[in-house]
Amino acid sequence: MAASPEGEGPKLCSDLRGSEKKRFRNTRFVVFLGILIGYASYYITRNSLVYTAPVMVASDSLNLDITNVGQMTSIFPIAYGMSKFVSGVLGAKLSPRVLLAGGLAATAVVNILFGFGTSMVWFCSLWAMNGILQGFGGPCCARILTSWFATQERGTYWGMWNIAHNLGGFTAPLIAGTAARALGWQWGMWAPGIIGAVIAVFLLFAVKDSPESAGFPPVEVTKDSEPVETEESAEEISLWDNLVQNVLTNPYIWGMALSYFFIYVLRQGVTSWSVFFLMKAKGVADVAAASYRVSGLELGGLAGSLLAGRLSDAMIARSKGKGGNVGKRVQVVMGYTIGIAAMLCAFWLVPASWGVAQWAIVFMIGFFLYGPQMLIGLCGAELVGPASVGASEGFLGWVAYLGAANAGVPLSIIVKQYGWNAFFVALLAACGMALLLLSPMINLKSYVQREEAKAKHA
């Protein structure tokens, strides 16, 4: 990094001019494109079994049924949730670029090997391994994104990166489902595996860990970007100390994690039970008609997550350094959560004959639901230093998937014992708990702001 004039502090990417500024923007675009396509590819290799399984069940040579498929898929979230936590912690000492590409390459190999199997032991073992490897994607992308984008623009780009969920979810059935039906179930696994392997090679060469690793100054000043910090000094803190000191002992990280828990109860509750609600409580004729009425959820989520990031960035820019940057994003999350509650009430009460209205309401539920899902993860990343982003995201992801797990059996018991009214009361209570947990954090400052304040008082 070029030396800065005395007294001006570290040079930033915003100070670049001319050809260097253009080179930085081009490099950053390639990096962003890499993590977007890379994480979407993780989703393709994650969802390949979902769209290949019907062809597997129909195959006489495998002798499988729905119960066998359920056994395979039930292993995945357990392995995935734990892996996201562990990989986030361990990833603090490893290159996120290498970990992102290596994890994708490994899950691609698992998909390919899956296609050569014939026994349940083989299938279950490999799918558990896939769950473990899938946990590498999110924390690595979070570390790379927070390194390349400054606070004032990070929400916008985080929201844009978040569409990788939708992109991967959209292309998985096209790739895996089409290949399985046209060429046999094996190709439903092999095709995603081959694509994942090719993208992994691209990531290894195209993505850079940070601006500094590509020969640029940092995007903003933190302790990690100051020249006095060396690689050796950064490694003095152990993995365990990093997790305990910077993540587990931070009460606001716990507040974010528990809020995430309830947001994921809402997300999984809506996605898992909406079709059943329309058929059982509203009298919608069949699965196809009910599925159409909830088809707007992902589309609404795409719009909502993009706007949430942009809106939180605009609030931070308008504040001109006053108040907490994380608090501004929390305020957006709270507004969106109130929107979730309002739309759940509308979905609960709208008559069955209002099919178009139900579609629009589900679209808005997705709009308000995916904003908090995206922004809470960003808040967790901005609360800690760059070296702890992976650990923070891993911990938040683990708690979130515990919430998703609690939207299964517990909600099914509520519906069975007390009916659909109780189901909606439970979801509204989850909204209330998320708002309660978030309310003390509406003025919360980011790690960068706290470091700047320390420097001013030093």
Give a concise summary.
This protein has 458 residues and is mainly α. It is built from 19 helices and no strands.
Coarse shape? globular
Helix tally?
19
What number is the mean pLDDT?
Answer: 85
- Relative strand content: under 5%
Q: Count of DSSP E strands?
A: 0
What kind of sheet is the major sheet?
none
Low-pLDDT segments, ≥5 res: 1-7, 226-235
H/E element sequence? HHHHHHHHHHHHHHHHHHH
Give the N-to-C terminal Cα separation. Answer: 25 Å
Q: Determine the fraction of residues in helical runs and give it as a percent range.
A: over 70%
The radius of gyration over CA amounts to 23 Å
Instruction: Give the structural class.
Output: mainly alpha
